[in-house]
Structure formats: C-alpha cells, structure tokens
Specification:
2 domains; 14 strands; 7-stranded parallel β-sheet; alpha/beta; 14% strand
Length: 507
Amino acid sequence: MQLKSLIAIFALALLVGACSKEELGSPQTPQIDPVSKTDLNEFILDYLKKNGPFRWSAASDQQLWSAVVQSDSLVAIGYSLPDQQDLSETMHLVDIQQEEWVAVKNQIIDFIVSETNRLNGTNVKAEDLMPFGEEARLPFITIKVHNQSILSALRQMQEVRYVDAIGYTMEEVRDRDSAGCDVNPDFNIPSADYTTVSPNAKVPWNFYNANIPNAWNVSTGDGITIALIDTGTSPGQSKLGSDFASGYSTGRFIDRQGTYDPCTWCWWNGPDGPNDQCGHGTQMSGLLAAPRGYGGSSVGVAYDANLLAIRGTADVLILGSAESNGVSDAIELAGSRSDVRVLSMSIGSIFWFNNIADAIYYTYDNGKMLVSAAGTSTWFTSWVGVIFPATMSQTVAVTGVRETWPMQKCSSCHSGGAVDFVAVMQRANDDSRTSLTLAMSGNTPARVGGSSCATAMTAGIAALIWATNPNQSRNTVLQRMKNASDFYPSRDGQFGWGRINADAAVK
C-alpha cells in the first residue's frame, strides 16, 4: 500500500473521530493483546533452530507488537523509494539528503508522530521519540512506537523495507554477565607458548601455525588501516597509545573513536567515548596490530598497520537498541573512510539486525573487507550455528580450531557452512592455552581464544596481503587468501577453505 494512501486513510479517520468531543484523546484503534514473553521466545527459538539468526520479518504483527511492548519500544525502520526495495548492492549510492529520500523519511516520521498523538492523546514531537537522532548516510530510522496499529500500517507501506524490534532481548541471552570481558594478565606463560623477537616482543605460539612470522619478511601491513569494531581500547595500555608507533612499528597511527551510547534517554545522551570498559576490544587490538616493540609484550599480526579502534558495543554480544545502533554507526564510520581496507568484527548476535546489515551493505559496496566471528558459545548459544553478521554473504566468516589434524573446532567455537576460514588458537589438549595478546595495561600478555581470536588474526593476515599491493581489490585479496588455504580449491562443510598460510598468501 502506498504511503500517501495510508496517510490519507488515517487523516480521514482523524476527521471522523473528531466528531465526538468525548472521544478526543482516547485511542481510536483497539490494541491487540500481546503474546506472552514465554510464547514469543519459543517462537524465536524454533526459528533459530530451523533457520539461523532470527529475523523480525518472520513474526506476525501481534508478535512484533509483543516484542515492542516488552522492550524499550524502539524499532528500526528501513525505508526506500517505492521502486528500490533491495539496496544490498546500491547502498553506497543512496543519498538520503536528496529531496525524494528526505520526503519519504519525513512522511514516515510525521505519520508515526501524528498517529501517536491521535491515538494516545499526547503532544509529542519527533525528537521525543528518536533518542539517537537521524542517520547521516543510511536509510533507516530508529524511533519509539507505542501502538500496534502504527506497526501494522508501517509493515504495509511500499516505502518501508523492514520494521525490527531492536530493543527486544531474550532473558537467557541477556544474562550473559558481560560476555568476553574477563581479561587478566597471565604471569605463568610456558616458554613453549611464545618466541621472543627483536627488539623485545613476544610472538604467540599460534602465529606459527599460520606462518605469520615468515610472512613478515615480505609484508608487515605498512600503509593499511584496519578498523576494529568492538568494545574500544584501554587508555591504560600504552601499546595502544603513546607506544603504538614504537620499536619496529614507527610511522603509523592509532585512531580511537566511540559510537556506543549506553544511556539513550539520559539528558547527557551521546556516545561515551573510545575507552574499553570490557577488555575484549583491547585484546583484539593487540592481536591485530600491537607494536613490535619493547618490554616483552605480545606483537600483533600486522604490526606496521594503522588502527581505527571504535567502541561500538559494551561486550561481544550485540543486544538491544543501544548496541545495534552503536555497531551500525561504527561500521558506517569505517566504511566512509577511504584509508580503511579491512574491518575486524569479533562480535555478533543470534538476532539479525537490519540496521547493522544496512551499514554492512554500505561498507562492502565501498570495497572494504569485513571479517566477522562465526560465534563463540555461551551456555545458552552452544547449539547455535554461525551467528549474525558472519552469516551475511558480504562478510568473511571465521572460527577457531585446535592445533590438531584432522581439523577440530575449539571447545567453544561455532562452525558450519557459512564459515570461510579458520585459525588455530587453542592447544590440542589444553583449552586454557590459547593465543597471547595485550592485557588492559602493562607488558605481561593476556590470553584470548575463540572465534574472536581467529577473526582478528585473519583480518591481520588480510592486511598483510593488501599491503603487498595497496591498489589491488578486495576480491583479489580474498582470492589470495583462498589460494593459500588448506582445502582450496575444495571447501569443507564446517571449516570453509581452512587455515590460511600467510607466508604463501603474501608471496
């Protein structure tokens, strides 16, 4: 149904309803009773088991309304021109500042605001319903919806691509106790788990499984900028601050940004900065690009690369409206920068977030390589396959494996048909002996594993390859990764192309 037609219908309803003064200020359309959270979660779980990451397009109007009622009422609404429903290959060409795009956006916002006021007897304005403001580049709106009839009408509009209840979370997933945030230095590292290279840096044992040290004879990532979408970086870790360009890693930069807004309705609303309050982003930064420096700290895969470290989320699981918007904004930021070639995303969700997918379309269409974690299990998600956004064809999905052959996934890693590559990050018979990386402060390394570790390592290898010829395309770099992998030209059903031999890939 055309947007203008729907607005006309509701305007007529407003005139009819205004005939009786007693009815002014009262709802004109009866609300549908929401289904219970238990029933809604059962529906979501059934979908997950059969189809993978859950999409709100599979829910009925009643189920979607139920999710909105039982969350923060925020929905993400993707919009388009009537004849441009699929933007996956043209997102980078969309200019939402053009008159026709502005008109569609404003009509949707005006419809929601006017219907909210009519049905609830309120006098709210658009800014009262939109805590994140308006998008600068991407065609979606994040707005509160308080009435089921508004949701139902939006889903029928030709100009609306999706309506997602981005604030809804399942209790089993929410109770994850800051997943991935347990970061402590390891003061008892066996000597077999590293080698020391000049000037005084530790090379993690598993870098040798990918032949990374030999690849450094050809490429160290010089001139390539890697964007990390994660929990930020620790201000107390000098190797990601004043010492980032030290030792053998001079002549490069680190750019620390923040897009995550943890308190969307606070008067001081806005991102809370680049500082890591979890530890996971600091660990991934260390794996990607820690300097080959002094003090005995661990070195990163691409130790000469630049790093754009963006705090887009509180921890590794993307949950709720604040994190989905923070991650979407972070990916969009990285995708808009001409110097960024590779994005590393050791984060994910069992929900499909279309506002994040829009940012990925935009960034992919701009020629970037997006490397994404296939998933690391919590107690609740151990049965889930590859998670979002690693399931997207626009991302390179990576998981972690043990130091064994035949190949065996790590104790907490996800695998499946969507996996493209793997990286060794866990000893064969000791789950605690994983890779080394930076801790929140100091030179003593911390441990990190899972698909997160494998993802950062793979993104670093991509940077090493890209640095051998900065003018090559993403597809050329990806093909070189495949050519240097275990199973190419075949593909394994659980582990994709397998492990990448970084030395062969850079040559």
